[in-house]
């Protein structure tokens, strides 16, 4: 962002993008003026709270962290099955929430060994170096310092298994989690599952006009 001329900016991230956002908010707190994180809880909180419900719904998290090349080979053996079970399996309806072109791009990536390896490495990092960093944040008292709004889907796993506002307040400075944080009428894919208009309202209200 500095290379593009932005020393400070807003951030809105979903799922893995929100996890990257969490790291950015703690490592470079002055870079982000405000942030919206979509349908996740902090990585450490999620691993620590894992029970049968979460492990069943988010089975892919535990599959993808297995040592290479086991998950990569399994995915590449039948990319379509993996896409239908894992990518579409997190939607709140049986109909794909993705546009045709977007889904085709996601699906094509599952045929590319380098893309599949990178995807698995992302999850393996979440279960290793990311957890190490998050534990260090706790021991050294590093927290999110700027205003944060958290949105999650009423029809998704976060609503069923977590107290999202409580979990984010534990990793943020006092009163930094915005009062507008809430569950929205959606599943996991908030930007796609009939929610782009409501999400845009939150972006304008909290980031642009707030």
TrEMBL record:
Q: In what residue span(s) does the AB hydrolase-1 domain sit?
A: 1-70
Q: Name one Pfam family in it.
A: Abhydrolase_1
The coiled-coil segments of this chain are none
SUPFAM superfamilies associated with the record: alpha/beta-Hydrolases
The record ties this protein, via InterPro entries, to: AB_hydrolase_1, AB_hydrolase_fold
Q: What name has this protein been given in UniProt?
A: AB hydrolase-1 domain-containing protein
Native species of this protein? Cryomyces minteri
């Amino acid at each position: 962002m500095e290379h593009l001329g932005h020393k400070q900016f807003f951030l809105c991230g979903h799922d893995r993008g929100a996890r990257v956002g969490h790291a950015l908010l703690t490592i470079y707190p002055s870079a982000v003026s405000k942030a919206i994180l979509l349908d996740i809880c902090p990585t450490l909180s999620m691993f620590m709270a894992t029970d049968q419900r979460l492990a069943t719904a988010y089975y892919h998290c535990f599959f993808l962290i297995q040592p290479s090349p086991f998950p990569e080979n399994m995915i590449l053996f039948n990319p379509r099955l993996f896409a239908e079970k894992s990518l579409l399996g997190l939607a709140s309806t049986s109909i794909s929430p993705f546009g045709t072109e977007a889904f085709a791009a996601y699906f094509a990536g599952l045929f590319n060994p380098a893309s599949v390896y990178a995807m698995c490495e992302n999850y393996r990092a979440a279960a290793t170096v990311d957890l190490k960093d998050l534990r260090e944040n706790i021991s050294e008292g590093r927290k999110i310092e700027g205003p944060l709004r958290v949105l999650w889907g009423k029809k998704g796993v976060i609503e069923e298994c977590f107290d999202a506002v409580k979990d984010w307040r534990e990793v943020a400075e006092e009163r930094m989690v915005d009062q507008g944080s809430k569950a929205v009428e959606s599943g996991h894919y908030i930007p796609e599952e009939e929610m782009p208009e409501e999400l845009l309202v939150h972006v304008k209200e909290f980031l642009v006009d707030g």
